[in-house]
């Protein structure tokens, strides 16, 4: 949550020893880690959101952990209404009601729950609306992270396509050959200059039933 204190630790177990090093989005950090490999955020903000990896430059080569996605959510403000408050309007008179957004993307899972058969194909679709335009769109499936246009057989993340709604796009993830291990939660994460939002998908994979018959004379 925005404003909280957060600490990340990078620990390297190596012989001979090797210094830990955090990287964010495969680039330099905006804050400095301490000598023990800790990243300490005294008050975390949206600018700290992103992919972090624990790395080290060892004499035997360069090594890195899996990426860890740090998502920073905005603290929700309480909404209060005055008891008995009214909006005066005459019969046939139009009334404008405003809605204030925090500027983060709006992400919706089109087919939130999907059942697929092992060995067949399946397609997940999500709609995202963002002003300003999204800086990053990511599909997260099992241990994989795919951006639009990525192909990691048998997974394909399609490029964004514009919709009839201004500033809204469709994003698709195709599993060309579904496996039982693909069952579970799949995430679509969208980031713009104002923050990060996500949509959750649930994929249920079933196996085709097989029957055998025997006859005896």
Key descriptive features of the protein:
mainly beta, disordered C terminus, globular, 6-stranded antiparallel beta sheet, Immunoglobulin-like, 0% helix
SSE blueprint:
Elements: E1 6-9, E2 21-24, E3 38-41, E4 50-58, E5 61-64, E6 68-70, E7 106-109, E8 113-117, E9 122-129, E10 136-141, E11 144-146, E12 151-152, E13 155-157, E14 161-162, E15 168-175, E16 184-192, E17 195-206
Parallel strand pairs: 8-17
Antiparallel strand pairs: 1-3, 2-4, 4-5, 4-6, 7-9, 9-15, 10-11, 10-16, 12-13, 13-15, 14-15, 16-17
Q: Outline of this structure?
A:
This is Ig-like domain-containing protein. The protein is mainly beta and 217 residues long.
At the fourth CATH level, what is the homologous superfamily of the largest domain?
A: Immunoglobulins
Order of helices and strands: EEEEEEEEEEEEEEEEE
Count of β-strands: 17
The domain count comes to 2
Helix content: under 10%
Radius of gyration: 24 Å
So what's the CATH class of the largest domain? Answer: Mainly Beta
Poorly predicted runs: 77-87, 89-100, 210-217
Any guess at the CATH architecture of the largest domain? Answer: Sandwich
What characteristic shape results from the CA principal axes?
globular
Based on secondary structure, the structural category is: mainly beta
Biggest pleated-sheet summary: 6 strands, antiparallel
Percent of residues in beta strands: 35-45%
- How far apart, in Å, are the first and last alpha carbons? 72 Å
């Amino acid at each position: 949550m925005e404003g909280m204190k957060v600490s990340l630790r990078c620990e390297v177990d190596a012989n001979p020893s090797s210094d830990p090093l955090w990287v964010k989005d495969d680039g330099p950090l905006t804050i400095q880690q301490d000598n023990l490999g800790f990243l300490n955020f005294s008050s975390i903000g949206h600018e700290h959101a992103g992919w972090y990896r624990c790395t080290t430059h060892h004499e035997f080569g360069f090594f890195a952990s899996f990426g860890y996605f740090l998502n920073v959510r905005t603290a929700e403000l309480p909404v209060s209404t005055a008891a008995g408050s009214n909006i005066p309007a005459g019969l046939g008179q139009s009334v404008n009601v405003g809605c204030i957004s925090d500027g983060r993307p709006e992400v919706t899972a089109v087919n939130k729950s999907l059942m697929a058969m092992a060995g067949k194909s399946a397609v997940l679709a999500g709609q995202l609306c963002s002003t300003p335009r999204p800086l990053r769109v990511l599909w997260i499936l099992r241990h994989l992270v795919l951006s639009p246009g990525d192909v990691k057989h048998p997974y394909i993340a399609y490029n964004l396509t514009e919709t009839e709604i201004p500033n809204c796009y469709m994003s698709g993830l195709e599993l060309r050959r579904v496996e039982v291990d693909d069952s579970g939660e799949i995430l679509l994460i969208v980031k713009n200059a104002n923050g990060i939002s996500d949509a959750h998908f649930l994929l249920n994979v079933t196996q085709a039933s097989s029957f055998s018959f025997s006859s005896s004379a």
